[in-house]
Specification:
Keywords: Membrane, Transmembrane, Transmembrane helix. This protein is mainly alpha-helical. Helix content is 78%, strand content 0%. 43% of the residues are buried.
Length: 217
Amino acid sequence: MSAPAPSLRGSVPLLAATLAYAVLTVAYVVANSSTPQPSASGDDLLRYYVHDHGTAIDLGVFLLVAAAVLMVPIAAFLARLVRREQSAAGAATAFAGGLLATAALASSAALAWTLGRLPEQSPAALARALADLSFLAGGLGYAVSFALLAAGTCLAVRGNRLLPRACATTGLAIAAAGFAATLMLLVFGFSYLLPVVRFGGTAWLVWAAIALVRSRA
C-alpha cells in the first residue's frame, strides 16, 4: 500500500492546480467578455481601455497573471510524472512548454495593463500596437507553448495506461491545432484555432489530471 503514495503526491497537487487554473481561465473570460475584437480600431481600443473599463481590465490582468503562475507547477508536476515513465525528452518538452505558456500569458497581461494606463491623448496607433502584441502573446504564443506541453505529455505516456487512449489522442489533436495556429501569421482566418487551444486545452488538462490521479491510485 505504500508504493502508490509518492505518485499520488505528484498527481493530486497536479489536479488541484489544474482545477484552479480552469477556474481562473473561466473567470478571466467573464471579466473580459466585452473586450474589443482584434479588428477594432485604435480609437475604439483607447476608448475601451483608457476611458471605460479600467476596473475590468485590472481584474482581467490579475486573473491572467494568477493563471500564468499556476502553469509553472502544472508543468512541473506533469514533467515529474512523465519522467517516471523514463521519457526524459517528453518531460523536458512538457516542462518547457509550461514555462513558455507562463511567459506568454504574463506578457499578454503586462501589455494589457500598459494599454489600460496610456495617457488619454495617446495616438491610436500606439493602442493598436499594444493590443496586437497582447493578442499575439496570449493567443498565438500561448497556443504554441501549450502545444509543446500537450505533445510532450501525450507522446511520453504513449504505450502505457497513464492516460486513456481517447485523452492522449485529444491532447495530440489540441497540440496539432496549436502548431497549426501559426498559420494565422499568413492567413488570419486560422486564428479560430486559438480559442480551440485555449479552452479545449484547458478542458483536456483537467481530463488528463483526473486520469493521472485515477491511474496512480
